[in-house]
Task: structure prediction
Amino acid sequence: MRQRFEELLCRLGAISDLGKAAALLAWDAETKMPPAGAEARAEQRATLTRIAHELQVAPELGALLEELRPFEEAHEHDSFEASVIRVARRDYEKAVRVPPELRAELTRTAAQGYHAWLEAREERDYGVLLPRLERGLELLRRYAACFEPDDPYDALLDDYEPGMKAAEVEAVLERLKAELPPLIAAVPGPVDDSCLRRRYPPEDQRRFALAVLERWGMDAQAWRLDDTVHPFATSLAPGDIRLTTNLHEEGLSGVLSCLHEFGHGLYERQVDPAYARTPLADGASSAFHESQSRLWENLVGRNLATWRFLYPELREAFPEQLGDVPLETFHRALNTVEPTMRRVDADEVTYTLHVILRFELERALLAGTLAPRDLPEAFDAKMREYLGLEPADPVEGVLQDVHWSELLFGYFPTYALGNVISVQLWERAAADLGDLDRQLERGEFAPLREWLREHVHRFGRALTPQQLLERAVGGPLDPEPYLAYLRRKLEQVYGTPVT
Amino acid sequence: MRQRFEELLCRLGAISDLGKAAALLAWDAETKMPPAGAEARAEQRATLTRIAHELQVAPELGALLEELRPFEEAHEHDSFEASVIRVARRDYEKAVRVPPELRAELTRTAAQGYHAWLEAREERDYGVLLPRLERGLELLRRYAACFEPDDPYDALLDDYEPGMKAAEVEAVLERLKAELPPLIAAVPGPVDDSCLRRRYPPEDQRRFALAVLERWGMDAQAWRLDDTVHPFATSLAPGDIRLTTNLHEEGLSGVLSCLHEFGHGLYERQVDPAYARTPLADGASSAFHESQSRLWENLVGRNLATWRFLYPELREAFPEQLGDVPLETFHRALNTVEPTMRRVDADEVTYTLHVILRFELERALLAGTLAPRDLPEAFDAKMREYLGLEPADPVEGVLQDVHWSELLFGYFPTYALGNVISVQLWERAAADLGDLDRQLERGEFAPLREWLREHVHRFGRALTPQQLLERAVGGPLDPEPYLAYLRRKLEQVYGTPVT
Result:
């Protein structure tokens, strides 16, 4: 049996290696590849993905997993052996439910959709994307049906949030939708954020961001930071974590984005190293991953306590830009609340409304109660209703995000759930660690990092997101801490109690 | 039939994609990867290599190639179709002759050998490598036997020089061995190369090297230059050529190494783009590849005509280092002839003696007429005999190159053959292009580059090295042009006729 388990590890190792090689192909394409390599790169990625999938649905793998049932049962739920088999079986059973032709067509349509999206933005014409989206939704409905869910949206969501149902997401988002608009309405007008409209030389930003991340736990032995257009983090191995950023001339959003990506990277870095080359070596879910990036970007990175420690360093790096700016002014500027047209520019408070809008629209599209041709109007209507803004054209509106064109339905809510989870974890860490703010003020970031390793990161995918949250915070998903946090933050930034 | 041919292209495309993905894993490991990623990277590379090999020996591929025989015969020898099938069949037939266990053990022993070599150098003790080398030779003899060659060395050589026999190599090298020592003996003593012992800031070297390579045909659309420890060139696609270099503080050897790697890169860049994702998309042989790097490094890069054009630019980049150095002094310094202990430091004239020494020793090792335990003494004896130098210890002697530890027997001679071929091509290009030196003096590098595309590069592996040489220069391998070139060069550098 032990030998058969070793054979399983071998098979899973090869699948993991192909995935990591594909991740390098992707990282390189976004950071290093000469432009003329793009076409060949797409073929290379497609080939690796196809072969990994073939290994993932191999009947021999299924038979091996069956054979190993008694072995799994002979081991504790939390043991390495039982966890690997349990998670591998889940992956296998999901993978084999989808006919290869359907999967191939989904991949093709997503790729075409992406190109149509680029073209639609170029032409400022949603009509270019429309037929792809119609076709994509048809395929997604067939994909969802493979899993015989009560609600088709559940099947799509499950790819990002294993085990979560659309109804649960809806309950959380409904609560936020009720509470956020009055919060925003109570904001007494924009703060002075002129200090973030100054010019900050990108090389100085990079130096500062790296200095911060080194304090937080990044080191050159196992991490890199490179330039890209759309920042992301990727892990090529437990000891090979890659962050990317886009440092603009104006403002410090590139630095904040480094802090965000660090959260993703740290999660991967702190998964139990014994899980390497198994399906356990990844985050528990998209929302959990997002909770980690949001935690370091917002709860640490926009925290007054953190800047009490870091601001002298920042000022030293940018004396001309910040010499005349008191800490409190800088912190307020970092935390301005004001509805923005683009989701990616949104502050902590309005962000979730962008997500709710998209969640509602994508559920309606999938259910067929909203026709794709009516999407732009529906999008604009919700922008007006939730954020009081009127997109000037489809590029500002329905075409601002790439997700739908690539058929990533079910992904958007994980951004909002990530915010919710980040505060639940923060509260528990603060309770466990004593005065967390005091630690940040003294530049002591290690206790928080180690708390996250111990209570979240090390488990990788061995626990479901539900189990992980229950063990880490002692309860289920709960938007109240997040709402309370936003209220405290607004009070701190705007000086007056809000709501 | 056409459909079956398309199926063949699909299968070959996947093998190619895996190879290119493995090449990216290797490039990244040498240029970008954080050190802690090394162990996982080795697994990733092994997995991709293993899967590519499985596809390469798949019985379905063999059956398809059989089935396509009439299709091949219905096409001209030089056609894309016939060439792909012919070369793919050669690769398949070679691959299936080797039992998988033997291949796996060769790979393992080579990896262990590499680590033993590192350790042996560290300890300055050949004894650390000896058992690996003994085991490796045993495996290499079994490997060679799979091909039932007249001379086991032929089988190893064939992996680098398809179709070439050890006896042919020997004939060329014997001729050089007879002619080179008197040439070297006639050198009237070292020239003043103090200008190449000065400090050149690496960033300025990089800027200059890139400016030169841009003139030669490198562009950011399809090329990169990165730093590494041991320079190399790799192609990830026809439009994705990567050069690496190691720019030292002292001297300009890093710039010369850029010119060398450019030659490799240009070859890959100029293969017929229609050959992408087929086995035709590569150089004809290792010697042909080396001929291209040597041509740009030596025949162009150490040429007085080239520097008549480039030297003002170089002087402008390094006014302190070269302001007092006349062109002729600089050119002589670039072309000093003086025996060196290390092969990689050797000049154009003595280089081949390093290769001859290694060729003779590796043939004797393989034949069993030299025992691995006697190798260090044999190495030192030939160093004394051919170069008049006495290695102080094994690191200066037998451990200076990595090749044998990694079981790359049969590779060394391709360096010397590359020199020979480079001059044969040069002579023909000069005859076709008119006054080549005059073109270089005017900074016109495009005619030479295009000549190489037309007569060498575009064919990729579609022609055998023998066919390619015959078509390009109208004759077989011939060391005489190379010898004549060296005599001219020495006369130019030392001012007096040599021999």
Residues 2-31 of chain A form the longest helix (30 residues). Chain A touches chain B through 40 residues (CB under 8 Å). Chain A is about 65% helix and 5% strand.
